[in-house]
Amino acid sequence: MSSFLQDGLQAECTAPLVLPKISIVVPNYNGGDTLGATLESLINQAYPHLEIIVMDGGSTDHSIEVIKQYEKHLTYWQSENDSGQSDAINQGFARATGEIINWLCSDDLLPEGALQRVGEEFKQDPALDVLSGWARNVHLDLEGREIGERFVSPTAKSLKLLPAGCPVAQPSTFYRRRTLDREGPINESYHFLMDMELWAYFVQKKYVWRMIDQVLSVQVISGLNKSQVGGERIIIEAERLYRTYSQDWIPMCWWHRHLIYPLEKWRGKKPQGFRHNVVRAYKALLFVPLAPFYGLNRLRAMNWSLHSLPPTNERLQKGAVL
Question: Per-domain residue ranges for the chain?
Answer without folding.
Answer: 1-110, 228-310
